[in-house]
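User: I'm putting together notes for a lab meeting next week and I want to include a structural view of one of the chains we've been expressing. I don't have a solved structure, so I'd like a prediction I can at least talk through. The sequence is below, exactly as it appears in our construct file.
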Amino acid sequence: MIRKEESDVVFRATNGKWRAVVVEIARMHKTGRPVLVGTTSVEQSDSLSQQLQEAGIPHEVLNAKPENVEREAEIVAQSGRLGAVTIATNMAGRGTDIILGGNAEFMARLKLREMLMPRVVKPAEGLFVSVKKPPSKKTWKVWLVLFFGI
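Assistant: Thanks for the context. Below is the predicted structure for the 150-residue chain, given as structure tokens.
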């Protein structure tokens, strides 16, 4: 696997960091690249989601909130699609694979179940397969905030 290691970016305040993250997400989203943003809390994921909404960037949020649990498998299955933006807390996702291009097989099964048994079937977990050919282009970037206390 080839991964481009970019320089870490350091900010004095949290607000500046998240504004820069939104700008970077918008840049990558315009190119059609799937973006996965990791946050350390539900509050951070909600705040970033609000900023992305204000910027007009479509996205999915994957965190520990009860209202997201039912769609968790679907969100993960589709987070590798062209232009997808997914915000995930470190407590969500539970180690499932993200398939570039999305998981068409999973979505077809889900749609079939919805048509045959509406309101009964929930997305099944563990239907993901590993990518046979690893993608040739990956990017890793760390965004840090330094707090200057007294």
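A couple of points you could mention at the meeting. Strands lie at 3-5, 9-11, 35-39, 60-62, 85-89, 138-140, 143-145. Residues 76 and 93 are 7 Å apart (CA to CA).

User: Perfect, that's what I needed.
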